[in-house]
Each structure stands twice: as C-alpha cells, then as structure tokens.
Amino acid sequence: MNTVDVRQLFKRAIQGDVDAFGMIYETHVTEIFRFIYYRVKQRELAEDLTQTVFVKIFARIDRIDTTYPKAYMFTVAKNILTDHWRKKKDEVFDSGDEHHINRFSHDADIEKKLSDTQDVERILSLLDTLPEEQQDAIRLKFIHDLETDEIAHALQTTPANVRQLQCRGLKTLRVQLTSSL
Question: What is the three-class DSSP state of 20?
Fold first, then answer.
C-alpha cells in the first residue's frame, strides 16, 4: 500500500471510520510486529507490544498528523519499546526463541534455500551488532520499505542524518561480512 493510500485511510479513521482503522491494522500489523520482534526476540512479547502500539494509535487517532502515517506508526512502536525497556531494564531477557527453524519442502532448490536462509540469518545477526540508530535506519529502509523522509520522521532526525546512519551501518556490515568469509 502506498503512502497516499495510507494517508487516506488515516484521514478516514480520524473522521471516525472504524473500518479504515481496521484496514490500517491489517495492512501494517505484520511490519510493526517484525520491527518490535527484532528488538525483543520473544514472539509473545512482540505480539503484546504490537497490540499496544495499535491501541495507542487508536486512542490518539484524532491527534495524528497524516503527513507521514507510516513513520508515525514506527515512532509509536519505538516509543513503546523504549517504555518497555525502561520498565524492564534490570531484567535479563531470554533470546532462546529468537531462531525459528525454517522448514522447506524437499525439492531441487533445498540447498540454495538453506544457503540463502543462512545468509539472511548471518546478516540479521550482524545487523544486531550495529548501534541502535543505524539498525533502525537500515531496517526501516530495507525491511519495511520506508522512504528517507519517513524514516527521518520516525527517528526524529533529519533525512541527511538518516542517509549517514544507513551509509555507516552498511559500510560496517560490508566489512563484517567480508571478514567473516
């Protein structure tokens, strides 16, 4: 769904159209969940926090600026995560549920699929070693397909800073990937 469609859905939701909010939820719940899951590494917790994001958006629907609606959703998600970590800062989180085994059908491409999956897991693992701002800038760009302006709005920074964060993060990833080969 493109930004114009999302803006229109938000405008309809602001005017009280509950179905429009339902469409916003259905369209974006997966990407918000993924964004949160990459941080907390626990499925149930990520589901709970994702629901909290949409409850907060719904509660504040009449005060939302529809200029960057996707960025707004990711900003709410980031704030929910910040609140969560503040409350739980002394607890140690078990990341044992982080890796789910991908099951492939037995076909001629199984080795290729397995290799691709291992490459993605390695990249995501290396991504976790970057500073949080670089991780967010890269994930929002390449995993969630946000535009630079939307990312800047979500991260509360400038577009130039977003590009710099992405550039530095990708450079670090490139070095780490080549050194691990």
Answer: helix
Phi first, then psi: give them for residue 77, nearest 5 degrees. -60, -45
Query: CA-to-CA distance for 124 and 148, rounded, in angstroms?
Result: 21
* Residue ranges, CATH 1.10.10.10, the chain: 110-179
Q: Residue 10's Cα: distance from chain center in Å?
A: 19
Alpha-carbon distance of 31 to 50, in angstroms, equals 10
Contact 81, 36 (CB under 8 A): yes
What class has domain 3-87? mainly alpha
Q: Which residues, including other chains, have CB under 8 Å from residue 97's CB and lie 6 or more apart?
A: 41, 42, 43
> What would the two tokens of residue 134 be?
């670089």
Q: In tens digits, what is the pLDDT along the chain, a chain of 181 residues?
A: 565 588 899 999 999 898 999 999 999 999 999 999 988 889 999 999 999 999 999 989 888 888 889 889 999 999 999 888 887 764 443 344 334 333 334 444 545 554 556 666 777 788 889 999 999 999 888 888 888 998 999 899 999 999 999 999 988 988 888 787 6
